[in-house]
Amino acid sequence: MAHTDPPAPDGPELAFDLPAIARLKQGNIDGLEALVQRYQVEAVHAALLIVRDPALAQDIAQEAFLQAYRKIDQFNERRPFRPWLMRIVINAALKAARRRQRFSALEESGDGRRAAEWLIDPALGPESLAETAETRERIWQALGRLAPSQRAAVVLRYFLDETESEMVRDLNRPLTTVKWWLYSARQRLRTLLQPKDGEKTEQQEVDHE
C-alpha cells in the first residue's frame, strides 16, 4: 500500500506557524523568535513539571528551540509544529531528570514553593487562589516522588493532552510500557494525595454537616 502524507494542519496554527517555519527554512532567524513567543511558556512549563528546577527548565526550553531550528529541514509541514517541538522538550527534560537522579537524589529545592506557582491558573479569582495554591503545591510535591518516566507520562497525557498512541511516538516506547507508566503514576499519585491523618476532604466535611 502506498504511503500517503497526513493532511496539512489547518486553522490558527497553520496561519501562524507555517510562515514562521518557512522563514526558518530560508535561514531567517526571525521565524524562531515568532515560535518562541508562541510556545515558550508551554515548553518551560512542561519541562518544569519533569525536572522540577525552574532554571533548568528554562535552559531545556531554550535548547529545544535551538534544536528545532537546527533540525527544521527535517520537519514535515504537513504535520503540526507544536507536538514536534514538545517531543524535543519532553525527551530533553526526561534525559536531564534521569541524569540528576543518577548522581543525586531528586529533592525539593528552595525554589519549590515558587515553582509550584507555575501550576496555578492565573485566571482564578483571589477567593479561590489560596486554596488552589495549596492543592497545586501538594500535587507538585507528589510529582516529585514519581520516577522521571512516570512524570513524563503524566505531563504528556494530562498537561499536553496527548493520546496513548501519541505518547508511544513521543516517548519511543511500546504501548504496554506507556500504559504501565500511566497506571503506576496514577496509583502512586492517588496514594500520595490521600488526606493525611486529621485532614478532612471537602466531601467528608459536607457529609458531616
TrEMBL record:
Organism superkingdom: Bacteria
Keywords associated with the record: DNA-binding, Sigma factor, Transcription, Transcription regulation
Record-linked InterPro entries: RNA_pol_sigma-70-like, RNA_pol_sigma-70_dom, RNA_pol_sigma70_ECF_CS, RNA_pol_sigma70_r2, RNA_pol_sigma70_r4_t2, RNA_pol_sigma_r2, RNA_pol_sigma_r3/r4-like, WH-like_DNA-bd_sf
Biological processes per GO annotation: DNA-templated transcription initiation; response to stress
Entry GO MF terms: DNA binding; sigma factor activity
Pfam families: Sigma70_r2 (PF04542), Sigma70_r4_2 (PF08281)
UniProt-listed SUPFAM superfamilies: Sigma2 domain of RNA polymerase sigma factors, Sigma3 and sigma4 domains of RNA polymerase sigma factors
Residue ranges of every copy of the RNA polymerase sigma factor 70 region 4 type domain listed in the record: 136-189
NCBIfam families the UniProt entry points to: sigma70-ECF
Family per record: Belongs to the sigma-70 factor family. ECF subfamily.
PANTHER family reported in the protein's UniProt record: RNA POLYMERASE ECF-TYPE SIGMA FACTO, RNA POLYMERASE SIGMA FACTOR
Name this protein carries in UniProt: RNA polymerase sigma factor
Organism this protein belongs to: Longilinea arvoryzae
